[in-house]
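To the wet lab folks,

You asked to see what we're planning to order before we commit. Fair enough. Below is the target structure as C-alpha cells, and below that is the sequence we designed to fit it. If anything looks off to you, flag it before the synthesis order goes out.
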C-alpha cells in the first residue's frame, strides 16, 4: 500500500550508510591489523593505505547518518519514529540538535562521530603507532555501528535503527482514528492526521544540554586513545615507547571529559531542583569514575616519563578507565538505573549487546596485560618517601580507590540483580558518599600541595622544608580565618564531619596557595612550563568552592506559617518552601518576596514563567527572578521545574517553583450552588455562614458606579468565618439590553466566590456560592543561597586551562624530539 505524504528516501539512504559504516569499520580493523603484523614495510604500507580509505569511508557514512537524522527531525518528518518521539514543531534549531542525542541511537551516533574525528587526527599524527592504535579504534567503530544497525541475526535483534517508521513499529495500530474501518488496515492518509511529535523531554530544553552532551561524548570517545596506545604498547612489546607521544592525548581526554562532567553539573544547577550541582546521581557517578581513573593514569604516565617507575600502573589505569567507560554505558543504557537516576536512558532491549560490548574489549585487553605483565619494565628499587613520584603514585592510588568505592555503591542495583541480593542504597545518598569522599578530598588536596615541592627520585629534607614553609604558613592563616570568621557551622552530621570539612577547606586552600607560590618561586614565573601547577591551582579552588558552597548553603524560604503538603515522591520539605500569594509581600529572612504575576505566553506554549520580586531588607536593592514550570511531555502528567538565580561575585540566590495552583485549575471541579434568600436570611458554607444584609438598586460607591437610568442590583452580604472574623461581599446583577451581567465577588481568605445570579418573585434573590482553593494564585517557592559557588566554576576553568597548557607544552616537546610528527 502506498501511504500519502511519506518521504522514504532519507530512511532508506540512512540505513544504507549505517551498513556501509559497519562494513567499512570492519574492513578498516582487518586492514590495520594486517598492517600492524606485517613483516615487510611495503606490505604494511599497502594494508595501512587500505585501512585509511576504509576508515575515511566509515567517517563519511557516520556523518551522513547524522545529517539525515537531523533532516528528518528538523523537517518534522513524523512518519519516522525518531522524529515523532523526540521532537515537535515548536522547538528552536538548537533544541532540534538536542532531539538527536535524547535518544540512545543518536547518542551512540554522536560517540561514533567523535571517534571518527579523533581517528582522522591519529592517522595524520601517530606515525609508527597508527596501525595498532587504529586497529583498536576501528574495532570500536564497528561495535558502535552495531548499536544502530537494527538487524536480526538468528532471531536476535542487534541494535536499534533510528530510521524506522511509526507504522513499522505498530504505534498507530490500536488507534481507531488512524484505521480504515472497512479493511481494518492503516489509512493511506494517516500522516495527515499526525499534527505534531510527542516533544523533547522538558529537562533537555536548556542551552547547556545543547553543549554538555557533545563535549561529554567527546570526553568518552577520547578515553579510547590512551587505551589504544596502551594496547599497542603491549601488542608490539614496545612497552614504554608510546608514553611520551600519547601524553598530550591523555591530557586532552582528562580536560575534555572533566569539562563535560562539569557542564553537566552546570545543567543540573540551572535545570534540576535538588538544590545544587552534584547529587551523587548514578549517571553522574558513571561519568566521574572513568575520569578519576584516567587522571590516576595520567599521573603515573608522567612518573614513568620522568623516572621509569609506575609503567605497569599506567597500563592498568588506562585499561580500567576505558573499561569503566564501557561499564558506565551499560549502567546508563540498560534501564537498570531507571528507578535510581533522573537522567538514565530507558531499556531498548540491548542489554546482552551492551554486555558483549564490554566483554570483547575486556578479555583481549586483560589477557594481553596479564601475559605481558612480567615483561613490562619495572624498577626494583623502591621510591624514596621524599620523592615526587612516590607521593604522585599515592595520589593516583587514592583516586583509583575512590573510583572503586563510588562505582561499587553505584552498582548496587546490578549486584542485587546478578547475585540475588537485596542491598539497599543509603537513605541519605549524598552523605553516604560525602562521608568517604571528604577524606579523599583532604588527602588529594594535601598531596597536590606538597607534590610540586618534591624533586623526582629524592629531595633533601632541608630543601623541602625551606620551600614549603611559606605556602604552609599562609595556608594555615587563611584557613584559620575562614574557620573562625567564615561562618562554616555545618553540624547536620555532627562535629566530626564538621571538623573534616574544615580540614578539607585547609587542604583545598593549601593546594591553591602552594601551587600558585610554586609557579612564582619554583618555576620563576615561567607559565609555559606551569600547566601542571595551574591545573592544581584550579583543583584547589574547585575543592574550596565545593566545600564552602555546600556547607554554607542556606535555605532562605524557611516556612513557619502556611506549609503546603507535597507528594513524598517529590522529596520536597514543606518547611523549606514559602507560600507566596499573588501581590502579597512575604517575609523571607534576609529578603521580602512578592509573587508579581505569571506568564504562559512562551513560544512553545508549554512554559509558564513566574515573576518573583525580592527586596533586600538591609538595603534598597531589588531584583526579579523568573523561575518557570514546563508542562511534561511524552504522556507524563504534571510539570518540571526550571530554576532561576541571581548571581553575585560571592554568592548565588537560587530559586524554583515547587508548586503553582493555577496550573491545576483545569482540575478544579468545584461548582456554584444557588441559594434562594430574602434580606436577613442566613446560609452556611463549610467554614462559616453569610447573611444577606441588603439589596441596593443602581449602587454608586467605591466599587460600582450607576445612575437612575441603569438597571443594576447589588447584594450586600456579611460573611462570618468559624473563628468569628467578618468579611464583606458585594456581588452585582445588572441588565444591558436583554443580557444579564453578573459580577462576582470573592473572599480570598475563605476561598469562596459569591454571585448574584437571579431575581426571583416575592422580593427573593438567588445567591450562588462556590468554594474552591483556587480563588487566588499562589506558588510554593524554594530559595537557596550558595556562598562562593563561583569558585566551583572558576576552579574548573583554571584546571582545564592548566591541562590545555600542559597539552601545548607536551606537543612541542614531542615535535622537538621528532620533527616529523
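Sequence we intend to order:
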Amino acid at each position: 500500500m502506498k501511504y500519502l505524504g511519506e518521504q522514504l528516501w532519507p530512511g532508506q539512504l540512512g540505513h544504507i550508510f549505517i551498513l556501509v559504516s559497519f562494513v567499512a569499520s570492519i574492513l578498516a580493523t582487518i586492514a590495520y591489523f594486517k598492517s600492524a603484523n606485517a613483516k615487510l614495510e611495503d606490505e604494511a604500507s599497502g594494508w595501512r593505505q587500505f585501512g585509511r580509505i576504509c576508515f575515511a569511508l566509515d567517517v563519511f557514512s557516520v556523518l551522513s547518518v547524522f545529517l539525515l537524522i537531523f533532516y528528518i527531525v528538523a523537517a518534522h518528518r513524523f512518519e519516522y519514529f525518531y522524529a515523532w518521539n523526540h521532537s515537535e514543531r515548536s522547538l528552536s534549531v538548537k533544541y532540534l540538535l538536542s532531539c538527536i542525542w535524547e535518544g540512545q541511537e543518536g547518542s551512540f551516533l554522536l560517540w561514533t562521530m567523535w571517534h571518527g574525528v579523533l581517528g582522522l587526527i591519529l592517522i595524520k599524527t601517530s606515525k609508527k603507532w597508527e596501525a595498532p592504535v587504529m586497529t583498536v579504534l576501528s574495532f570500536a567503530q564497528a561495535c558502535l555501528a552495531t548499536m544502530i544497525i537494527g538487524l536480526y541475526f538468528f532471531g536476535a535483534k542487534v541494535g536499534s535503527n533510528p530510521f524506522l517508521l511509526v507504522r513499522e513499529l505498530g504505534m498507530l495500530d490500536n488507534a481507531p482514528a488512524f484505521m480504515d474501518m472497512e479493511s481494518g488496515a492503516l489509512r493511506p492518509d494517516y500522516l495527515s492526521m499526525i499534527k505534531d511529535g510527542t516533544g523533547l523531554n522538558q529537562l533537555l530544553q536548556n542551552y547547556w544540554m545543547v553543549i554538555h552532551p557533545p563535549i561529554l561524548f567527546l570526553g568518552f570517545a577520547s578515553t579510547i586513545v590512551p587505551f589504544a596506545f596502551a594496547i599497542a604498547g603491549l601488542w608490539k612489546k614496545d612497552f614504554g615507547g608510546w608514553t611520551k607521544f600519547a601524553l598530550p592525548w591523555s591530557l586532552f581526554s582528562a580536560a575534555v571529559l572533566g569539562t563535560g562532567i562539569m557542564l553537566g553539573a552546570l545543567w543540573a544547577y540551572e535545570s534540576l531542583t535538588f538544590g545544587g550541582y552534584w547529587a551523587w546521581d548514578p549517571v553522574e557517578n558513571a561519568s566521574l569514575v572513568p575520569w578519576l581513573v584516567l587522571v590516576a593514569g595520567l599521573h603515573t604516565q608522567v612518573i614513568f616519563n620522568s623516572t621509569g617507575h609506575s609503567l605497569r600502573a599506567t597500563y592498568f589505569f588506562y585499561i580500567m578507565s576505558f573499561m569503566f567507560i564501557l561499564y558506565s554505558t551499560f549502567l546508563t543504557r540498560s534501564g537498570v538505573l531507571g528507578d535510581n537516576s533522573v537522567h538514565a536512558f530507558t531499556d531498548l532491549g540491548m542489554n546482552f549487546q551492551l554486555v558483549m560490548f564490554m566483554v570483547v574489549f575486556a578479555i583481549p585487553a586483560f589477557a594481553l596485560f596479564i601475559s605481558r605483565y612480567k615483561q613490562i619494565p619495572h624498577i626494583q628499587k623502591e621510591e624514596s618517601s621524599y620523592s615526587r613520584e612516590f607521593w604522585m603514585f599515592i595520589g593516583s592510588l587514592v583516586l583509583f580507590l575512590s573510583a572503586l568505592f563510588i562505582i561499587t555503591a553505584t552498582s548496587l542495583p546490578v549486584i542485587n540483580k546478578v547475585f540475588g541480593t537485596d542491598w539497599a542504597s543509603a537513605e541519605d545518598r549524598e552523605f553516604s558518599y560525602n562521608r568517604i569522599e571528604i577524606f579523599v578530598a583532604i588527602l588529594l588536596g594535601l598531596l597536590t600541595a606538597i607534590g610540586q615541592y618534591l624533586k623526582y627520585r629524592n629531595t633533601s629534607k632541608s630543601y623541602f622544608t625551606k620551600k614549603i614553609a611559606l605556602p604552609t604558613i599562609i595556608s594555615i592563616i587563611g584557613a584559620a580565618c575562614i574557620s573562625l570568621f567564615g561562618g562554616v557551622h555545618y553540624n547536620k552530621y555532627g562535629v566530626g564531619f564538621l571538623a573534616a570539612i574544615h580540614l578539607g577547606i585547609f587542604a583545598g586552600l593549601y593546594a591553591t596557595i602552594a601551587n600558585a607560590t610554586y609557579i612564582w618561586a619554583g618555576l620563576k614565573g615561567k607559565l609555559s612550563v606551569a600547566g601542571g601547577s595551574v591545573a592544581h591551582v584550579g583543583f584547589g579552588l574547585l575543592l574550596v568552592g565545593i566545600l564552602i558552597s555546600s556547607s554554607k548553603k542556606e535555605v532562605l524560604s524557611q516556612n513557619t506559617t502556611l506549609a503546603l503538603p507535597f507528594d513524598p515522591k517529590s522529596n520536597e520539605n514543606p518547611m523549606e518552601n514559602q507560600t507566596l500569594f499573588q501581590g502579597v509581600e512575604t517575609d523571607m529572612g534576609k529578603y521580602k518576596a512578592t509573587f508579581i504575576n505569571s506568564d504562559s505566553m512562551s513560544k512553545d506554549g508549554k512554559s509558564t514563567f513566574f515573576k518573583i520580586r525580592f527586596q533586600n531588607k538591609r538595603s534598597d536593592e531589588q531584583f526579579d527572578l523568573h523561575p518557570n514550570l514546563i508542562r511534561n511531555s511524552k504522556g507524563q502528567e504534571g510539570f518540571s521545574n526550571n530554576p532561576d538565580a541571581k548571581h553575585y561575585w560571592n554568592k548565588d540566590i537560587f530559586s524554583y517553583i515547587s508548586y503553582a495552583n493555577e496550573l491545576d485549575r483545569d482540575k478544579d471541579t468545584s461548582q456554584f450552588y444557588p441559594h434562594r434568600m430574602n434580606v436577613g436570611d442566613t446560609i452556611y458554607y463549610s467554614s462559616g455562614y453569610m447573611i444577606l444584609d441588603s439589596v441596593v438598586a443602581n449602587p454608586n460607591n467605591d466599587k460600582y458606579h450607576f445612575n437612575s437610568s441603569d438597571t443594576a442590583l447589588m447584594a450586600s452580604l456579611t460573611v462570618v468565618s468559624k473563628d468569628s472574623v467578618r468579611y464583606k461581599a458585594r456581588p452585582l446583577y445588572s441588565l444591558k439590553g436583554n443580557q444579564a451581567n453578573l459580577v462576582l465577588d470573592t473572599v480570598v481568605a475563605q476561598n469562596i466566590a459569591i454571585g448574584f445570579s437571579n431575581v426571583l418573585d416575592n422580593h427573593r434573590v438567588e445567591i450562588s456560592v462556590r468554594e474552591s482553593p483556587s480563588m487566588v494564585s499562589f506558588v510554593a517557592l524554594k530559595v537557596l543561597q550558595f556562598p562562593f559557588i563561583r569558585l566551583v566554576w572558576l576552579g574548573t576553568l583554571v584546571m582545564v586551562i592548566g591541562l590545555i597548557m600542559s597539552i601545548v607544552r607536551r606537543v612541542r616537546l614531542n615535535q622537538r624530539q621528532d620533527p616529523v610528527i
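Structural context that might help your review: The longest strand covers residues 607-616. The radius of gyration is 33 Å.

Thanks,
Computational group
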